[in-house]
Amino acid sequence: MIPRFIRRLAIVLLASTVALATTAAHAARDISIGLQAAITSMDPHYHNLSPNNSMMLHVFEGLIKRDENQKLVPGLATSWKAIDDLTWEFKLRKNVRFHDGSPLTADDVAFTLKRVPNVPNSPSSFATFTKPIVDVKIVDPHTLVFKTATPHVLLPSDLASVMIVSKLHGEKATTEDYNAGKACIGTGPYKYVEFIPNQRVVLKANYGYWGGEEPWDKLTFKILTNAAARVAALLSGDVQMIENVPTSDIAKMEKDKNLSVVSKVSNRVIYVHLNQSTEKSPPFVFDKSGKPMDKNPFRDVRVRKALSMAVNRDAIVDRVMEKKAVPAAQLLPDIFYGTSKKLKPTRFDPEGARKLLAEAGYPNGFSMTLHGPAGRYINDDKVIQALAQFYSRIGIDTKVETFPASVYFNRATNLEFGYMLLGWGTESGEQASAMRSLLATRDPAKGMGVNNRGRYTNPAFDKLLEQALVTMDDKKREGLIQQAAEMVMGEVGLIPLHYEVSTWAAAKGFKYTARTDQYTVATSLKPSK
Amino acid sequence: MTEYIIRRLLQSSLVLVAMSVLVFAGVYAIGNPIELLVNPMADDAERARVIANLGLDKPLWEQYLTFFKGALTGDLGKSFVFNVPAVGLILQKLPATIELALCAMVIAILFGIPLGLWAGLKPDSIAGKTIMAGSILGFSLPTFWVGLLLIMLFSVQLGWLPSNGRGDTVNVLGFEVSFLTADGLSHLFMPALNLALFKLSLIIRLTRAGTREALLQDYVKFARAKGLRASRVVGVHVLKNIMIPIVTVIGLEFGSVIAFAIVTESIFAWPGTGKLLIDSITSLDRPVIVAYLMIIVTLFIVINLVVDILYSVLDPRVRLGQGAGQGAH
Hints:
Helix content of chain A is 29%, strand content 23%.
């Protein structure tokens, strides 16, 4: 909404200000944080949405937690192991108490698993994570045994997304009771104080927290959707940290001695799906004269390769993303589980791309419209314009069309486009689940290829992936996932472009440990001295 | 007059129905909220469950009928996103918006009319010219830009005022208001000023034009010739006669200030309905969009009715009820 030059002007003026208001009177241990997106509920099982999940980590905890690199670490469970392919044993941490003082026992965990699929009117349920568990056995107050119907290696990762609630307070509680705070009682480091939708969430410290005391007494999360307002709030000292700093402001803010800017590559890859669902031309793909073609060019691996080689990823990262992105070779940066170090971003080679197109029978190229969302991913509209220019260089006539997210994703799911710019954040932090959703042959009943909007299909790849998903041994499984990734990326099942880098900015005296899951959590914010 | 008011209310309910049909169909045409609501990791069964749960699997006319039946009993549906009644969600935010809009209008009127009068009475003085030049600025500077400048000046440079949010509130007659606390006022000042600037300029220009015209009228000349004090000439003969267009505009603009405080609300993170509407549109939360527009249309209808009644008070020549709404607009 606000033109960039205005924001730039604002930043220039703001940065030149000597008297920064960071000294504004606020008790040192009460802090405010500016968030970009609204929290829709304080019920941890109501809406599976990143801003909610991030907020819930303050009040509730899962059996397993994810650290800032999304590695699984013990949470309310001290240990877990697979007894056989279908049986898992979880040991609970002792001496954990809920905010009301009642102790955490296996009953609470069993109750949580029962509640998750049964939250009325949930717009996006967490049942996906609990569905594989067909039976829960309480061995003793601190030991549980879960049974799955089929081998389910992702169980620990799935359970890291399920927040444990108190049976005592949750049994009769509705989502409204959680929103009002009555039932919003967890084991986490902060307690509920106030939740006003679209405005703010206030939490206070849980001094008896088992994991040790947090440095803050009171947290106020303010919803500041507008990027300029967020930056202004930080500069004026109304908040001590903000998330999602607009890329155009980052360079200036990094030079400001009164601010600390941290960034980290995220689990979100920006990629392109090429619609391979049709025999003939997919929607919006034509020959040079604007007529549909008899063959779908995207079904030819040479065309897909050419479309990947034509893209100068470094230029996109340098110019469009102002260096706040990393060129991508697969679906996750190679610090994550199941990624292959052998895969490197496709080299920019317009001449090679032209040759491949000619080999595939398109010596003069073809014409297509590039479709993408506007405002869903960082600089998405600019990225897609850059892409169009790269393709013009190899002889493809391009048009660009973007839509608001509310329109775009429905149409993309209905396969109304040919060339689709999309993004995917892998919350589980391992590559198998991303490939399963985006690249496996679509089979909704099995949960395969649910978001495979390109309808890429490769039986050999499917077999490898399915094998990986039932291999319990971590090392062996990782090998299989890497092998599958190398196979599918070699065939350009989709075109990976870049990984987004998420950025936080904090006032002087605060230090944020950046996270790959793009979450903003106060437990990662510490005083810098 | 009673008959007139009843007729107006009947017409208004037709407007409301027509509007709800349009909005319903419009939001339906934009797309389906499912893609935005459901986590992309969810499988097709989960998607189907949510679609059925929200009633989106039914044909549009059936969805509308369900809505209409509910609306007759005052239930405009539950928000898709928040799962709470849409009306409740809006009414929770409405006091903040109305407070902001009222303060903006008070600023606009308190400063606009005297300044406009001054500029009209002394058009060639330096003060008069300065006022007019200022009003051009108020007209032409974009709201968000002025808002940012205000934040830079008062929050960042001087550190006097908070840059965002609403301050402490106190409960008056069941409404949370913030203008009675010092903290509340400090939060209120910038957004209210920001929102007022455009209306202020509008009122200045209207008042000035009206004053200039009125000064040439015979009754003003006579009043002067009669030797009346200047203050009486201005206060009674001029001001009262130029009030009709000004009241019309203030009435209409008040509605639009409430409905379109969106930009100001998002820059200052003011927790009002404008921000709620924008968020609801981006997430296609249809019940909230429909309920919001119904409430705003109702507001417009009421304001216009009040303006019409005010006319008859201000100008004895206007009589309500002769002919359908004659002289109403």
